[in-house]
UniProtKB/TrEMBL annotation:
This is Aromatic ring-hydroxylating dioxygenase subunit alpha. The keyword Methyltransferase does not apply. It is an enzyme of class 1 (oxidoreductase). Residues 9-112 form the Rieske domain. SUPFAM superfamilies: Bet v1-like, ISP domain. Keywords: 2Fe-2S, Dioxygenase, Iron, Iron-sulfur, Metal-binding, Oxidoreductase. It comes from Ammonicoccus fulvus. The lineage of its organism: Bacteria, Bacillati, Actinomycetota, Actinomycetes, Propionibacteriales. Pfam families: Rieske, VanA_C. PANTHER family: BLR4922 PROTEIN (PTHR21266:SF59), IRON-SULFUR DOMAIN CONTAINING PROTEIN (PTHR21266). InterPro entries: Cholesterol_7-desaturase, Rieske_2Fe-2S, Rieske_2Fe-2S_sf, VanA_C_cat. It comes from the Bacteria.
């Protein structure tokens, strides 16, 4: 299960999109069913009924919050336990449950663990849990392997080229024909923090990698707060959900939000054609591509992925 992405915490969807209607979602190749049991409780099961293997997402939520299979009416609670077997009141239900997955509700997101016994909790930036920040949330699906999308989000050297009309114009303005990009990569408990700078210019933005599949870009020094976080969530084979979350502590009026939101979407969409054109689709082993020193941040991620996740 979850080939190439096992035993990882990842957001799946914004919690606002989880309703009482059972919903099928694919995470790292595995079909899941999610639904809201009540206002405070969400359930996540493998999308297979243990009785005859049909999709549980075809079923419906009962008045008590259980999920009733559409085939024979078997009912399952939020833990996957079998609560009712119609026409068989004496049947032993203890060994006829569906399979539940560990999940959390944090920062307005539904987090799912791609395994059954997590040994740590999700690493969640404080920007996602601060209710005082203005927030924009958007997601879309690209035809790409999640590792290519992740490397792109960690790749600082492409800014003055792919994003020359948006966030890259600030780098491009300082770049000379003989400029050198320096990068400091510091290991953290959640992944790493990258500090890039050009020539003798002082560092500006900082970037964080949150294992396994997120990038956080901090574009302004305190006390101003403007952060862009992107999660590259594997869904079906060679498809990735790009979950974008931006937060800020200024320009709080509703009239200001459309300009910020459209700008963030423009930046995201400038990456799409590049990422989807990658060949091979998945990041390859060392030596298959011709890397240079400015690839330090992406190679750090690639080495971790090939060593820890690819065969998981």
């Amino acid at each position: 299960m979850f080939a190439g992405f096992a035993r990882q915490w990842t957001p799946l969807l914004p919690l606002s999109e989880v309703t009482s209607k059972p919903r099928r979602e694919v995470l790292a190749g595995e079909a899941l069913v999610i639904w809201r049991v009540d206002r405070d409780t969400v359930a996540v099961l493998l999308d297979r009924c243990p009785h005859r293997g049909v999709s549980l997402s075809l079923g419906s939520r009962t008045q008590t919050g259980r999920l009733a299979c559409s085939f024979h009416g078997w009912e399952f609670d939020s833990t996957g336990g079998c609560a009712r077997i119609p026409l068989n009141p004496g049947a032993d239900r203890s060994r006829r449950g569906a399979t539940a997955l560990p999940h959390r509700q944090i920062g307005g997101l539904l987090w799912v663990f791609t395994g059954f016994d997590p040994d740590e909790e999700p690493h969640v930036p404080d920007s996602l849990t601060d209710p005082g920040l203005v927030r924009f949330v958007h997601h879309e699906t690209w035809d790409a392997h999640w590792t290519r999308a992740m490397e792109n989000m960690l790749d600082y050297p492409h800014l003055p080229y792919v994003h020359r009309t948006t966030i890259g114009r600030f780098v491009r303005a300082k770049q000379r024909p003989d400029s050198v990009l320096h990068q400091k990569v510091e290991t953290t408990e959640y992944g790493y923090e990258l500090t890039p700078w050009l020539d003798d210019e002082p560092p500006g933005a900082t970037l964080r990698w949150y294992r396994p599949n997120s990038m956080l870009l901090n574009t302004m020094p305190a006390p101003k707060h403007l952060r862009i976080q992107i999660y590259c969530i594997p869904t079906e084979e060679n498809r990735v959900r790009m979950l974008l979350i931006s937060t800020r502590n200024f320009a709080r009026t509703p009239a200001a939000s459309p300009a910020f939101d459209l700008f963030n979407l423009k930046v995201l969409h400038q990456d799409r054609a590049i990422v989807e054109s990658s060949d091979p689709v998945e990041v390859p082993p060392p030596g298959r591509e011709k890397s240079v020193p400015s690839d330090k941040a992406t190679l750090t991620f690639r080495a971790w992925y090939l060593r820890n996740l690819k065969e998981s």
